[in-house]
Predict the structure.
Amino acid sequence: MKINNQKTNAQFFAYDGCHKIYLIENEQQLQNCVGYQIKPISELKQTFDSSCELRFVNSADLKINFVKQYEKLEML
């Protein structure tokens, strides 16, 4: 899957309930997302569209910024 032209293997993402979205690509990243809602990647578009306009999408390890604040989300 690609999100804004960047490849990811994420099957889940962490969501803070407002605007922080982190793609989870492995078990270690999942363990680091304590306190966040864990959702299947199939819910990413809906969650993104209904979240605060300060929203962004990063990798859970913070190495990749998939969607910067105020950008649109494109999934392929």
Strands lie at 2-3, 6-7, 12-15, 20-24, 37-40, 56-59, 65-67. Residues 44-50 form the longest helix (7 residues). The chain has two helices and seven strands.
